[in-house]
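A student in our group prepared the protein record below, which I am reviewing. I have pasted the whole thing underneath without changing anything:
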Amino acid sequence: MYNPNENRFGDPEDQFTRPPRRAASPMAMAAVSCAIIAILTSITGIVSIIFASLGILFACLSKGSRSKPERATKYAFRISIIAMIISGVLMLFSLVTVIRQYGSLQNYYNSYLEMIEENYGIDLEDIYGIDSGQDYDIDSDTGYTPETGTGEAL
């Protein structure tokens, strides 16, 4: 006889229960961890891009034999992409600001070295073992030397 309150699959108490979810794979958890680290370190630039790349890699590898990616994997992939975009934009903005303020990266580097020398008393020769006022042989085929100042061979 038909009973409308009875679940046709068994116990009427199990009518609204869902099957238990499978635990997320270790690769999915690694992807989520890397994505969180990437978004937290997005202001650092390169560190964030490294962790975001790892998060994307682990998210892609976590699918395994499943037909669909896990929810954690989807979020890790999206967060890693967002962290990578944020880091890229901040690095580009920093580069544009430095070039606008100093004119070129070489001028910025020279200002940095001057600041180090003024504040700490360390000059370029102490740091790298070279003399900052001396030009070095750029092209060995032409024989350019700082002594002659010409491109003629000695």
User: Anything to note?
Assistant: Helices lie at 26-40, 46-61, 71-102, 105-120, 124-128. The first helix runs from residue 26 to 40. Residues 136 and 146 are 6 Å apart (CA to CA). The mean pLDDT is 79.
